C-alpha cells in the first residue's frame, strides 16, 4: 500500500531505553506505516552553536524503518534553541506594538533576519546530508505551520528595511507610490521611501491592537501582507533549495489550510512537491463541512499529486488553548474522518500525535496513546482504521477524486483586503466561500476550490465568491471564460478594489459590468433589523451580510426585493454574454435559499449531481478510477443512522455485495459504492 | 440665501484634469453653495519643510467660487506630513502606556510640542496670507476633530513637564497640593512637584489600559483632563490668533459634540466666531434624539450666532470602523435630517462628503456620490433638499429657535469626574442628560442645553442632571436662581465633589441642602435584582442606575419607595425655597415615569408646551420670527406616517395652505406650521 | 471581652483638629474596641529619606488607647512614597510585558529588590521601636494584601536573576532541569541557566497578555509561581523577624483568602502568630457560601488560634472598580455577617473602614460613617452588633468550632497548575472545592478546609478535590490514611502531574490507582451539548466540567453513565482498601446530585450531621465549649424568615429560653442554641 497512515512521534522526548523500546513495539503494533519527526528539536540536533547531534532522530528513523515504517523528517526551524535567542537577540520576532517576542514559546524568530537564515541554512544542510538518502525517509516537512499564533507579521527593523526596499523596487518613485496607494488621503504621502513605517493595526487573529482603533493605510497594509507572505515563501524556498540538493524525496510543509491565512499557499507551493496541511476537525460533533471545503482546496493546489494531511485530529484531551479541551472521538469517528480524508485525495494522514505530551504547552492534549502507554479506544480505532484502509487501498490508489464541473475561485488579495477592512463582523471571505461549497455539497454537487490563476476554462460553472480585489488578468479570464460558453457566478463584493487595495473609480463590478450586465447601484450592510425578503418567483429567501443592489445593464432580474423600500429592485441577475451566462448574486442568503438558487443555476448549466438523495451531515465523494469507473464514497458524519436513496441499484465497491437502492449508513459510518 | 448647504471636497485627491472638471460639473449641478476643503492636506500644502504650494486648493476655491460656491478652508494640522514625523520624531503623540504613535494614521502629534507648534504657526500664516481675503472663502476651520480616536491625552515628556508646571503654578506648594488632592490616601503625597507622573488609567474610549485596573488618583486625573483640554484650547487659539490677523471671515473648528468629550467646548469657543460640529445620525433608523439634544447644546454655545454643522451624515457605505458599515439613507431621510438641523439653528450643513474615497482608512465609506461619479439616489436627494431649503430660507433666515423656558445645565468637570470613576456601567452623564431632554421633547417642551456658567436666571425651570462636581460659584448661582422664584430640578449624584475631584466632607447635596430641603442619607447603585417601585401618588415608576435616598430637612416627599426595605422612604422631594421651588430627583426612571414626573414639575412651573400632541419619533421645533410670529417645524423621523393633533387649525408656513387640526406627516417628512 | 471588633482608621487623612476630635468621639460612641491603622502612610511616616515622623499615628494610638480602644499597627510597605519611586526608579514593579509600573497607584514596588528591602527594614525597625511595647497596640499587620491587582509576579531583572539562581540551586545542572521540566518539548531545553527568561503569559486575573496566546512552558510557569510566592514569604519574614525583636504582640498580615491566590498561605503563616484575612461578602444578597468556606480555611491555618478578619464588608458606596458600586447592607446583615465570622472562630472583625474616603482611588466607597460624619444606619447597626457581641462573648470566647469529621484538602500546586492551564472556563479549583463544602454545609455536615500537609489522620472522611499535582509524600499520606480505616474521597483531575507541572507517565490517578481501585481510562471536558446522565441506582444526576471515565481495577461502580455512547461505563467508584474505603468521583454534578452522593458517602462513614433540618441560605456552626457542651449557631442569610426543625427541644444558649423544636429565624437573623 502506498497510502501513508500514521502519526507524529517525538523520540527526543524519551529518556529511558525501556520506554523507547515500548514505544517502538506499540507503534509497530498500531499498524502505522509512517511517522513524522523532528519539527521542534533544534535544541537536540544542535545542542550548541555548530555542534550537531542527529543520533536520536536517526536511530528512531532506522529502528522504525526496519519495522517497515517510513518517516517524514521535519526541519526544526519553528523553534530556535535557547542559546541562539540569548546569543543573537536580534533574531527575535517583534510584534505590531514593537515588543520583542522572547524565547519561551515558539515561532520566536524573524523569518527575514539574516542571522537566523544563516543558522537555518546550516541545520537544513545537515538534515539534507543526514537524511537525504536514508531509505526509510519518505519526505521532508519544512518548518512548522508558518505564521501561526500571531507570528506571521514581524515588525522588526530588518523587516521594515526589506519592506521599504521592496516598495521602492516596485514603485520606483514616491510620486508613483503616493498615487498608487492614494496616499493623499489624510495627508499620508511620502517624499522619501525611508519615511514608510510598518502598519500597526493587527490583522492576525492573535495579535493585539495598540489602541482600540489605529487606522492604517489599507494599501500599506495589503502590500505588507503580500510582503510578509513573500518573505515566508522566500524562507521556505531557501530551505527547499538546500534539501533538493541532497534528496529526491518529496518536500512540503504543513500549512494551516484556511486557518491562519498568513501566507499565499498557491504561490508557496509552486516549488513544493506535495501540498501539506494540518486539520483538527472535532471528531465528536463535526459535520466536516470545513474539512471537506479545505480538502477540495488541498487536492487542487498541486493537481494529480495527492496531498499530505500532516497533522490530524485523533480526539480527546486537554487543550493547548486553556479551558478549551477536546472531546474524545465518537466511536467510529476516527475511521470516518480518516477515510474521508483519503477519499478526498490525501496520500498521507498523520495524526497528531503518538503519545500524550507530559510536559510543555501542549501537555495532556490529544494523542493516539495516553501518557501511561496503555492502549485504549483511540489506539484500537487506529488499528481498525488501518485494516480497513488496506481493504480500500486498491480502490483509493487507483482512482482520484473526479474533477468537478464547478470551480470556486479563491484569491488571497481579496481574503486579505476583507480582513484588513471587514465589511461586517459576521461575514468572512473564507466562511462565505465555504457556505457556497457546502450548499453545493448538500445538493450532491462537487466543486473544486482553486485559484483564479489556475486554468478554469473547462469547468461548466465557475463561482467567484467576494472577489473584492480585481486585476486585469483576472477580469479578462472571467470574461473569456463566459464568452466561450461558461456559466459564471459572481457574488456581492466583487471587483471593487485594485491590487493596491484602492477602490477603482468605475461602476462595479469593475471591468465586469458588461459580462454581468449590471452595475452595482447601492451597497449596504444587512443588520438583523434590516433583513429583507428576496423573491425568486418559485421561492424566497432572506438576505444576509451585505447588499450589492443592482441596476440592470442588459441582465434580467431573477431575484428582487419583496419588501422594504427597495421592493422590486434587483439583487440577483442573470445575463447572457456571448456564448455564456453570468449571474450576479448581490447578497448572501439563508442556507435553504442558497441551495435553491445554486441548484437552479447549476441545473441550467447542465451540471450533474451525484446519483443519490443526500441530507445534512452526509457527503458523497465521487472518485474516478483509472479504468473510468466511478466509485462513490458516502460518509455519514452524524451520530445517528443516515438513509441514502440511490437512483439505481448499488453494489459495494470493496466487497461487491448488492446494496439495492436504499442504503443505510451507521453513525459515523461510510461506504464505497458503485452504481 | 445665506444658509450654507454643501459637502466636503478633496481636490487634492484628484490627479486627472478630466476628473476634476467632471467633479466641478457635478458639484455645480448638485446645487451646493458651500464646500469644505483642506483639513488633511498638509503633505500637499508643504511638500517639504518650508516649501509651500497652495495651488491645488486655491484653484479649486476660485473655480468653485466663480460658480457661486463658497469654501470653508481648514488648517491641515490634524495630520503632520511624513517628512515631519520622520525628521522630528519628538512631535509624536505618546499614549497612556508610553508607546509612541508613529506616522501612519492621523492625530499622530503632540499638541503641546513646541516644534509642532512652530510648524503649525508657519502653515497657518501661509493659509491666512493665501485665503484670508479670498472673496470665495466664507470661513476657516482649525484642525479637525481635536482629541478623536484616543489622541486627546498625550503622555509625552513635554506634556508631563507642562502639566507639572501648571500644577505647581496653581498649588504653589506640595503641602497645598497634597491636601487639595487628598494625597495621603495610599501614601501618594509629593515632596517635590517633579515627582508627579501622568495618570495612566485610560478615560478615552479608544485608549487601552496598562493592566486591567490601574488605580490612579482621581484628583490627578481630573486635573490632567482639564490640563489636556486647556492645551487643546491653547493650541486652537494659537491658530485662531494668527488667522484673525489675516482675515475677517468666521473662525471655528469642528467639534465632535458629545461624542469624544476631550475638550471643554464652552471654554474653547469663547474666542471663536461660530460653533462647529460634526454629527453622524443614522439616516435609516434614527429618531434624532441625540442630534436634537446636541443641536440644543450647539446653538447655545455662541448665542445669536447660527452654528455650523461641518460634517454631517449622508448615509451608506463601508465603515471607518471595520465591520461597522452604514445603512443607506431611508428615502427622504437626508432632507429630513438636514432640514431638522437648519430648523435647529444651523447656519451651515456640510455633508461628509462629496465623493467616496477610493483609498485610505476611510475608503468606500459614505459620500454624496459613488466612486464611479455616477449620480444616484443620495445625489438626487441632495438636489431636492437644496430646492426645498431655498423655499424655507426666508422663514429660516428670519427666525431663530425660540428661547426655551427650561435650561439643562452641563458641566465638564462632572462629565469627566463621572468618566474617571463611573458609578454604574449603564449610566453616563451625557446619556442621562439626553434622557431628560428627550422626555421633555416628547412632551412638547423645549429645553436649552447650556453651561451653568451661562446666565440662566430668566428660565422658568433649570434642570441640573448629575452635577457631581460643585464649586461655590455654581452653588451660589443655583441658590440665587431658586430664591428669586425659579424652579430648580436637581438629580441624583449632585454636588458631592469639589473641582479637585475630592468628595466634600458635608452632607450632600453639598452646599445645596438648604435649597433642596434634603440631605442625602444613603446612596446605592440599582441592579436588575434590586429595582424598586417608586410611588408618586398618581403614578408609579421603577428606579434605575443609582439611588440618592433622601432625608427630609424641610422638603416634602413627592416620590417614595413603594416596596423593598425602604418602603416609605423619600427618593424625590419638593421644597419651597424663598420665592422658588427646588426638586431633588434621587434616581433615574423608566421613560414613561420620567415623562410623567417632568410634566408634573413643568406644569406647576407654568411652562408651556408646544400646541401639539406628539409621539415618539416626532419632534417640534418652535422658531420665533423677527416679527414675533412663531413657526413650528414638525419632523417625523419614523419610517411610517405620523399623526399630529394641533390645538387649533394650522396653516403651512411656506405655502399658506390650510391644514386643519389633524396633520399627517409622511415617513421621514416634515412640515413648517403656523398656528 | 477579648474579642476585637472595630474598623480601619486613617488619622493621617485628617488635617483639622476639630475633625480629629469629632472622629475620636464617634469612634468611642460606636463601641468599637479595636482599630487598624497605618498600612498606607509611608509618606507620612518617612516624609523624606531617613526622616521619620510617627507622631500622627502614635498620637491616635494613644488617644484611642486611653478610651479603651486597641490598635493593630500596619507596616506601610504596600505603598512606597513618591520620593522613593523617583529617586530609586529600580524599585519599580515590572509587569509581564516588561512595562514598569510607575508611582501613582499602589503595589508599585518589586518585593525582591534589595534597595526596596533596605528601605523596608529601616521603616519596620522604626515601627518596632515606636510601637513594639505600646500598651495600646494589640498586634501588627505586615504590608497589605500581598499580590493584589496584578502585583504578584514582578518581571524585573532582579526577579529574573533571583529566579534563575533559585532554579540553578534546585536543579544543579541544565540536563537535570531540562529533563525535569520536559523542555525538549518545542525545543526549549537550556544549555545555560542564564538562558532562562521569565514566563510571559499572565495567570493573575488583572494582568494582560502580550498577545492573545503566548504558550509558556507550564513547568517554568509553576516554578515561577512558587518562586514569586516564596519571594513574598521571604519579604514577609524579613519584616516579621524585625518586629519580633521589638515586640511580643501578635504578628500577621491581611491575606485575600481565596481571592488572589498569589501566595501559598500555608507556608507564609508558619512563622506568623495569627492568620489574617480580608473578606467582602455582599451584605445584601450574600448566602455566605464563600465566606463560610474561606472561614473554615482561615481557622485551620493556625489551629487553636482564632483568626483575624482584618478587613470586612460594611456595605454601601461607590466601588473601587469603576461602575461596580456596592449595595447597602440589608437591615440586620452587618450583625448577621459579623456574628457569623466570630462564630467561625474569628478573634477579631475589623470593618473596612471608619469614614468614607473623600479622595483617592477608593473615594466614596463603603465605610461605617459617611463623609459628613453623620451617623446613620450602618453606624447604628455596628453599635447594636457590638452590644450583642458582648452578650455572646462568654459563649464565643470559651468555645471553639467543633473539629469536623470531614477534611477538605487544599494544595497550592494544584491550584496554580489549574490556573496555568485551566481545563474548562467554568471550572475553578477553589470554586469546585467550595461547591463540595457547600453541599456538605447544606446537609448539616461541617468540614475543615486544610492543607494536605496537615495531619488529617483522625478525620472520618477526607475529601480531595482536584488534587491535580501529586507528590510521593501526599500519595503516601492518602494511602496510609485509607489503609488505617479512613474514608477517602477523590475527584476528577486527581494525581496527574508532578510538582514540576509535568504529567506523570503512569495510569491515573498516579500512585493512587491501588487505593481507589480504578484507572482513569478516558478524560474529556463536558460541554452543554454533551452533558450525560449519571445513574446511582437510587438517584441520578448530570455531569459537569470534566470527566475522568474509570476502568475498574477492583473498585465497584456506584455511578455509571445512563446514556451517551458510554452507557454503563463507570464514573464514580467505591473501593475497599485495607481497613478503609476510597471513592473516586470522576465528574462534578448538579448541586442536588452532589448532595445526595456526599450524603450517601458520609452516612456510610458514620459521620454525624447537625441535629437540624436546614435549607439553602441557612447554616449551622457547632461550637464546642471548654466543658464539652455544644452550642449551635444557626444563621439565616436570607431576606425572609427561615424555619429550622430540630431533632429535640432546644434552648437559647444566651438567654436559656425554651425554643421547642420548630425554630423561626428572622431575615438576616441568627440564634445560638443548645439541644
Automatic annotation (TrEMBL), chains A, B, C:
Substrate binds at residues 106, 144, 321. It comes from the Bacteria. It catalyses: Hydrolysis of terminal non-reducing beta-D-galactose residues in beta-D-galactosides. Residues 9-391 form the Glycoside hydrolase family 42 N-terminal domain. Keywords: Glycosidase, Hydrolase, Metal-binding, Zinc. Its EC number is 3.2.1.23. GO terms for biological process: carbohydrate metabolic process. The active site is at 145 (proton donor), 311 (nucleophile). The keyword Ribonucleoprotein does not apply. The keyword NADP does not apply. GO terms for molecular function: beta-galactosidase activity; metal ion binding. Residues 404-607 form the Beta-galactosidase trimerisation domain. Zn(2+) binds at residues 110, 154, 156, 159. It is an enzyme of class 3 (hydrolase). This is Beta-galactosidase. It comes from Congzhengia minquanensis.
Amino acid at each position: 500500500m502506498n497510502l501513508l497512515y500514521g502519526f507524529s512521534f517525538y523520540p527526543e522526548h524519551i529518556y529511558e531505553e525501556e520506554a523507547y523500546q515500548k514505544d517502538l513495539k506499540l507503534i509497530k503494533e498500531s499498524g502505522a506505516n509512517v511517522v513524522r519527526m523532528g519539527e521542534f528539536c533544534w535544541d537536540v540536533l544542535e545542542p550548541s552553536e555548530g555542534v550537531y547531534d542527529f543520533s536520536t532522530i536517526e536511530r528512531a528513523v532506522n529502528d522504525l524503518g526496519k519495522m517497515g515504517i517510513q518517516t517524514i523528517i521535519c526541519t526544526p526551524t519553528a523553534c530556535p534553541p535557547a542559546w541562539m535567542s540569548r546569543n543573537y537577540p536580534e533574531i527575535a520576532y517583534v510584534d505590531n506594538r514593537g515588543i520583542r517576542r522572547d524565547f519561551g514559546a515558539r515561532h520566536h524568530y524573524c523569518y527575514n533576519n539574516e542571522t537566523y537564515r544563516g543558522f537555518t541554512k546550516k541545520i537544513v544542510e545537515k538534515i539534507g546530508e543526514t537524511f537525504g538518502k536514508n531509505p526509510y525517509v519518505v519526505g521532508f516537512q519544512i518548518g512548522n505551520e508558518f505564521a501561526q499564533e500571531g507570528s506571521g507579521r514581524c515588525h522588526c527593523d530588518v523587516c521594515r528595511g526589506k519592506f521599504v526596499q521592496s516598495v521602492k523596487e516596485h514603485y520606483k518613485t514616491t510620486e508613483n507610490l503616493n498615487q498608487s496607494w492614494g496616499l493623499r488621503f489624510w495627508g499620508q504621502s511620502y517624499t522619501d521611501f525611508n519615511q514608510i513605517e510598518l502598519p500597526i493595526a493587527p490583522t492576525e487573529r492573535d495579535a493585539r491592537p495598540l489602541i482600540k482603533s489605529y487606522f492604517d493605510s489599507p494599501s500599506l497594509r495589503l502590500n505588507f501582507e503580500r510582503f510578509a507572505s513573500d518573505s515566508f515563501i522566500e524562507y521556505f524556498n531557501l530551505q527547499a533549495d538546500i534539501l533538493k540538493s541532497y534528496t529526491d524525496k518529496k518536500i512540503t510543509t504543513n500549512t494551516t489550510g484556511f486557518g491562519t491565512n498568513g501566507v499565499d499557499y498557491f504561490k508557496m507551493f509552486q516549488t513544493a512537491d506535495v501540498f501539506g496541511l494540518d486539520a483538527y476537525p472535532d471528531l465528536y460533533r463535526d459535520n466536516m463541512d470545513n474539512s471537506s471545503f479545505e480538502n477540495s482546496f488541498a487536492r487542487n493546489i498541486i493537481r494529480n499529486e495527492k496531498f499530505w494531511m500532516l497533522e490530524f485530529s485523533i480526539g480527546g484531551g486537554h487543550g493547548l488553548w486553556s479551558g478549551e479541551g477536546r472531546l474524545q472521538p465518537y466511536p467510529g469517528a476516527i475511521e470516518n474522518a480518516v477515510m474521508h480524508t483519503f477519499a478526498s485525495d490525501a496520500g498521507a494522514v498523520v495524526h497528531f500525535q503518538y503519545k500524550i505530551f507530559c510536559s510543555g504547552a501542549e501537555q495532556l492534549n490529544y494523542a493516539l496513546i495516553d501518557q501511561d502507554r496503555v492502549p485504549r479506544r483511540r489506539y484500537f480505532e487506529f488499528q481498525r482504521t488501518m485494516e480497513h484502509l488496506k481493504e480500500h487501498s486498491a480502490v483509493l490508489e487507483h482512482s482520484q477524486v473526479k474533477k468537478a464541473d464547478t470551480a470556486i475561485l479563491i484569491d488571497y488579495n481579496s481574503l486579505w483586503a476583507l480582513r484588513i477592512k471587514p465589511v461586517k463582523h459576521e461575514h468572512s471571505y473564507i466562511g462565505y466561500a465555504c457556505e457556497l461549497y457546502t450548499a453545493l455539497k448538500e445538493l450532491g454537487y462537487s466543486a473544486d476550490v482553486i485559484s483564479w490563476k489556475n486554468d478554469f476554462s473547462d469547468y461548466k460553472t465557475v463561482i467567484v465568491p467576494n472577489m473584492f480585489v480585481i486585476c486585469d488578468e483576472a477580469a479578462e479570464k472571467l470574461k473569456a471564460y463566459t464568452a466561450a460558453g461558461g456559466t459564471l457566478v459572481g457574488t456581492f463584493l466583487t471587483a471593487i478594489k485594485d491590487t493596491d487595495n484602492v477602490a477603482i473609480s468605475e461602476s462595479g463590478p469593475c471591468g465586469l459590468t458588461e459580462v454581468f450586465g449590471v452595475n452595482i447601484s447601492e451597497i449596504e450592510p444587512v443588520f438583523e433589523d434590516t433583513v429583507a425578503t428576496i423573491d425568486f418567483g418559485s421561492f424566497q429567501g432572506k438576505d444576509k451580510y451585505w447588499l450589492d443592489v443592482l441596476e440592470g445593464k442588459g441582465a434580467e432580474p431573477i431575484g428582487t426585493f419583496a419588501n422594504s423600500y427597495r421592493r422590486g429592485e434587483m439583487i440577483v441577475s442573470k445575463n447572457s454574454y456571448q456564448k455564456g451566462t453570468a449571474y450576479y448574486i448581490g447578497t448572501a442568503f439563508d442556507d435553504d435559499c442558497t441551495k435553491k438558487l445554486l441548484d437552479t443555476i447549476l441545473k441550467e448549466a447542465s451540471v450533474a449531481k451525484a446519483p443519490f438523495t443526500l441530507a445534512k451531515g452526509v457527503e458523497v465523494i465521487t472518485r474516478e478510477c483509472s479504468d473510468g469507473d466511478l466509485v462513490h464514497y458516502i460518509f455519514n458524519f452524524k451520530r445517528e443512522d443516515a438513509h441514502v436513496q440511490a437512483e439505481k441499484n448499488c453494489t459495494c465497491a470493496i466487497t461487491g455485495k448488492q446494496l439495492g437502492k436504499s442504503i443505510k449508513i451507521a453513525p459515523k459510518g461510510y461506504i464505497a459504492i458503485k452504481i
